[in-house]
Amino acid sequence: MASHIVGYPRMGPKRELKFALESFWDGKSSAEDLKKVAADLRASIWKQMADAGIKYIPSNTFSYYDQVLDATATLGAVPPRYGWTGGEIGFDTYFSMARGNATVPAMEMTKWFDTNYHFIVPELGPEVKFTYASHKAVEEYKEAKALGVETVPVLIGPVSYLLLSKPAKGVEKTFSLLSLLPKVLAVYKEVIADLKAAGATWIQFDEPTLVLDLDAHKLQAFTDAYAELAPVLSGLNVLIETYFADIPAETYKTLTSLNGVTAYGFDLVRGTQTIDLIKGGFPSGKYLFAGVVDGRNIWANDLAGSLSTLHALEGIVGKDKLVVSTSCSLLHTAVDLVNETKLDDEIKSWLAFAAQKVVEVNALAHALAGHKNEAFFSANAAAQASRKSSPRVTNEAVQKAAAALKGSDHRRATNVSARLDAQQKKLNLPILPTTTIGSFPQTPELRRVRREFKAGKISEEEYVTSIKEEIRKVVELQEELDIDVLVHGEPERNDMVEYFGEQLSGFAFTVNGWVQSYGSRCVKPPIIYGDVSRPKPMTVFWSSAAQSMTKRPMKGMLTGPVTILNWSFVRNDQPRSETTYQIALAIKDEVEDLEKAGINVIQIDEAALREGLPLRKSEQAHYLDWAVHAFRITNVGVQDTTQIHTHMCYSNFNDIIHSIIDMDADVITIENSRSDEKLLSVFREGVKYGAGIGPGVYDIHSPRIPPTEEIADRINKMLAVLEKNILWVNPDCGLKTRKYTEVKPALTNMVAAAKLIRNEL
Ligand code: GLN
Ligand code: ZN
């Protein structure tokens, strides 16, 4: 019985690749140094999988930046502005595309399906000439072979590559990306021939776009592509790998009739309906790569459950055609549990990171072959049982309270315009009120204070004094700038989710549980393992202190339940909605405590609401329904005079604007500065909008200082479609990553622009 891993994290157990990349980019180490770190990481990963007994070990899943960018390099599809003149693509061109250089900005980056990984979007126009310009796939295959490890080279499938691309500037509306298919396939043929010549016997094409809602034209592209490749693929075993959701029934038909394909990989963790499709018929003689070990989470597999799923599948596809696999690449989980020194043994027994998942896959394969490792299985069963019954997981009061929420609506009693009137009487704000999103620059000094307090090196008293001093500086600065609604600057927070997670019950934190977000950047999501509750107020102390320093309204600053959920590793033993409702109740208590403490404006950030949107259209309405409901629960208990703000990142709101309105916040600030037009078009199309709205007037992701006229111009454009009494003026997002030398002049210009227009109105 065989085992397979779809892909593996590249960053290394202690982020070795990150540090090697950043040191190379800073000119502190050579290209050779970087290559050496990368080769060592690859070797140790291959060896680890081989030692674990994995039969189909992937290669070419390593990347210096991103696997989609690697495919772009393989195809020689370098946008002309990077000045590449041919030959094998080296670090210079590669990293210029990824990160930009002194003269040319980077290529666009976007989210990889519904994960928190970001890929570099290929930009293709009718003029693009594809040439085989990076031999990385075959080089990695040979490298592994030289180490004695036979691997399955992994390529992004040609159709997914095109479907994930965007048309080059100037041809956005007219160009069909799929028309490039024949040209792209010509290079794929060369790559395949190369791999074959090097001795590869298997090849894996990742075609994750197959889980999306595809029309007949797109499905036809898959049929055409693999028919075209079939002659070159003959003699090879060909695996088409899909992941992240169920396969639509129509797609399943197309997929399982592709030419030249010998194996299909499915995500059976998220794809429970896919299992039914397989049971309804699977092409005889083909391999099924059954992704039963979750690549998106950190929980130990329920081995007994998986084994019974596998037994059922074995009856359909045959013993020798079933391969145990992961649900997707392990890129999206943490690397190795052995480096977790701070988690206690009980919680550790519930978890499996990438290295442990490899062992699980192998154990399942052995069990199917009749060599069940009884000790391993019973330890796993014991851990599953302890997770189910542990008092640390279950809090009955919380369960009851969350269950009681279902079916009810939770809306503030008064409508938003009446509320805004009541709030204005109390707040007395000028027209076009100015505010910021929450954080102010986090200086090295500030980070040091937090670190030393955590490590017990400074007393609580010293810590509180330093943080209060910082808040005072931020408050004074905002008064000096004449901003209308102030923030305390979030100096006590390292991260907007971690800060709350650390104070809520039901959360655990890792020391090395990093997951790649993009390039060398990683995130360390908290683990939500149990019912969530709030033992005591979390932000009231700091917000009250800040409010006492000024007569102007001070915004209370909270992270919303959906964002806390989307940026954590979440429980898989209850629906995501249930966990979110529990968090919502905890945040609700915090909102009410802030109100009692005299905070009249409270911002509840839902930065990540949009990014949790399910991939398949059929599931989106349900998600938006409970996500928006959870948000409303947090503030349903406040008085009309308390103004609730929310903030969202990312600018693609057009498709969810009605859900945003349904959140029923009094004011929403949104990231917008890179796409004014998109947002404006929503309102031009006549969407009725009555709440306060602050579309970001400048981009905080760049050090650039926006001139007053430019900001004024933006505000005027907004005024053309929105009522003047609902418009707010604010930056795009928090200022945490900027320097004071950038923030001061930028905010000065922002306030000046608001005043300029107020005078004209
Ligand atoms: N209040 C947070 C901040 O300003 C919001 C950050 C975010 O939207 N990502 O930092
Ligand atoms: Zn934001």
Automatic annotation (TrEMBL):
<dbReference type="InterPro" id="IPR006276">
    <property type="entry name" value="Cobalamin-indep_Met_synthase"/>
</dbReference>
<comment type="pathway">
    <text>Amino-acid biosynthesis; L-methionine biosynthesis via de novo pathway; L-methionine from L-homocysteine (MetE route): step 1/1.</text>
</comment>
<dbReference type="Pfam" id="PF01717">
    <property type="entry name" value="Meth_synt_2"/>
</dbReference>
<dbReference type="GO" id="GO:0008705">
    <property type="term" value="F:methionine synthase activity"/>
</dbReference>
<comment type="similarity">
    <text>Belongs to the vitamin-B12 independent methionine synthase family.</text>
</comment>
<dbReference type="GO" id="GO:0003871">
    <property type="term" value="F:5-methyltetrahydropteroyltriglutamate-homocysteine S-methyltransferase activity"/>
</dbReference>
<keyword id="KW-0862">Zinc</keyword>
<feature type="binding site">
    <location>
        <begin position="521"/>
        <end position="522"/>
    </location>
    <ligand>
        <name>5-methyltetrahydropteroyltri-L-glutamate</name>
    </ligand>
</feature>
<feature type="binding site">
    <location>
        <begin position="437"/>
        <end position="439"/>
    </location>
    <ligand>
        <name>L-methionine</name>
    </ligand>
</feature>
<comment type="function">
    <text>Catalyzes the transfer of a methyl group from 5-methyltetrahydrofolate to homocysteine resulting in methionine formation.</text>
</comment>
<feature type="domain" description="Cobalamin-independent methionine synthase MetE N-terminal">
    <location>
        <begin position="3"/>
        <end position="315"/>
    </location>
</feature>
<keyword id="KW-0808">Transferase</keyword>
<dbReference type="InterPro" id="IPR013215">
    <property type="entry name" value="Cbl-indep_Met_Synth_N"/>
</dbReference>
<feature type="binding site">
    <location>
        <position position="18"/>
    </location>
    <ligand>
        <name>5-methyltetrahydropteroyltri-L-glutamate</name>
    </ligand>
</feature>
<feature type="binding site">
    <location>
        <position position="733"/>
    </location>
    <ligand>
        <name>Zn(2+) 1</name>
    </ligand>
</feature>
<dbReference type="InterPro" id="IPR038071">
    <property type="entry name" value="UROD/MetE-like_sf"/>
</dbReference>
<keyword id="KW-0486">Methionine biosynthesis</keyword>
<feature type="binding site">
    <location>
        <position position="671"/>
    </location>
    <ligand>
        <name>Zn(2+) 1</name>
    </ligand>
</feature>
<feature type="binding site">
    <location>
        <position position="662"/>
    </location>
    <ligand>
        <name>Zn(2+) 2</name>
    </ligand>
</feature>
<feature type="binding site">
    <location>
        <position position="605"/>
    </location>
    <ligand>
        <name>L-methionine</name>
    </ligand>
</feature>
<feature type="binding site">
    <location>
        <position position="567"/>
    </location>
    <ligand>
        <name>5-methyltetrahydropteroyltri-L-glutamate</name>
    </ligand>
</feature>
<feature type="binding site">
    <location>
        <position position="658"/>
    </location>
    <ligand>
        <name>Zn(2+) 2</name>
    </ligand>
</feature>
<dbReference type="GO" id="GO:0032259">
    <property type="term" value="P:methylation"/>
</dbReference>
<dbReference type="InterPro" id="IPR002629">
    <property type="entry name" value="Met_Synth_C/arc"/>
</dbReference>
<keyword id="KW-0479">Metal-binding</keyword>
<feature type="binding site">
    <location>
        <position position="649"/>
    </location>
    <ligand>
        <name>Zn(2+) 1</name>
    </ligand>
</feature>
<feature type="binding site">
    <location>
        <position position="490"/>
    </location>
    <ligand>
        <name>L-methionine</name>
    </ligand>
</feature>
<dbReference type="Pfam" id="PF08267">
    <property type="entry name" value="Meth_synt_1"/>
</dbReference>
<dbReference type="GO" id="GO:0008270">
    <property type="term" value="F:zinc ion binding"/>
</dbReference>
<feature type="domain" description="Cobalamin-independent methionine synthase MetE C-terminal/archaeal">
    <location>
        <begin position="432"/>
        <end position="755"/>
    </location>
</feature>
<feature type="binding site">
    <location>
        <position position="647"/>
    </location>
    <ligand>
        <name>Zn(2+) 1</name>
    </ligand>
</feature>
<protein>
    <recommendedName>
        <fullName>5-methyltetrahydropteroyltriglutamate--homocysteine S-methyltransferase</fullName>
        <ecNumber>2.1.1.14</ecNumber>
    </recommendedName>
</protein>
<keyword id="KW-0489">Methyltransferase</keyword>
<keyword id="KW-0028">Amino-acid biosynthesis</keyword>
<feature type="binding site">
    <location>
        <position position="116"/>
    </location>
    <ligand>
        <name>5-methyltetrahydropteroyltri-L-glutamate</name>
    </ligand>
</feature>
<feature type="active site" description="Proton donor">
    <location>
        <position position="701"/>
    </location>
</feature>
